[in-house]
Structure formats: structure tokens, C-alpha cells
Amino acid sequence: MLGFVDAVKSHLKSFEERHKIICVFQSKINNLQLDSERSVALFRIFQESLTNILKHTKATKVLVKLEKLK
């Protein structure tokens, strides 16, 4: 089972290959500690964001940036 960050990277790479949209992932967080329920919820939001990009834009590049706000 992948951690959240690795799962996002993996999904983003597949998305890029499938849809020929350049995808960039930026994060200063190497090990995000989330319980499984929150991790799944956040991952679903991430997936829906990519779906919305496909449906509603003509994007040629996607930037996913993960940061912790204080």
C-alpha cells in the first residue's frame, strides 16, 4: 500500500501518460501523516480535480502542489 504522496505521484504519472498533459508534482512534505479515512478522502478530491481539468479545460499542463499551511 502506497502512502498518500506516492499514490498521488503514481496517479499523476498515469494521468500524464493517458491524457498527454504535462503533469508536475511539487511538495516539500515527504511523509504526510494522515489516518486512512482522511487519506482516502483527500485522494478522491485530488482525482476529482483531475477529472474536472479534463472535462472543463483545455489544459496542456497541470501543477499539483502539496504544502502544509500553518
Tell me what the structure shows:
- The chain is of the alpha+beta class and about 70 residues long.
- It is built from 2 helices and 2 strands.
- The chain has a two-stranded parallel ribbon with strand order 1-2.
- The longest helix is centred in the middle third of the chain and has 21 residues, at about 35-55.
How are the secondary structure elements laid out?
Blueprint: H1 4-19, E1 22-27, H2 36-56, E2 61-66
Parallel strand pairs: 1-2
Helix pairs in contact: 1-2
Q: How many DSSP E strands?
A: 2
The Cα radius of gyration reads 12 Å
Q: Helical amount among residues, as a percent range?
A: 40-55%
Mean pLDDT value: 93
**Beta fraction:** 15-25%
Oligomeric assembly: single chain
* Strands in their spatial order, largest beta sheet: 1-2
**What best-fitting shape do the alpha-carbon axes yield?**
globular
Query: Count of DSSP helices?
Result: 2
Alpha-carbon distance between the two ends: 28 Å
Order of helices and strands: HEHE
Structural class: alpha+beta
* Largest pleated sheet: 2 strands, parallel
Low-confidence parts lasting 5 or more residues at pLDDT below 50?
Answer: none
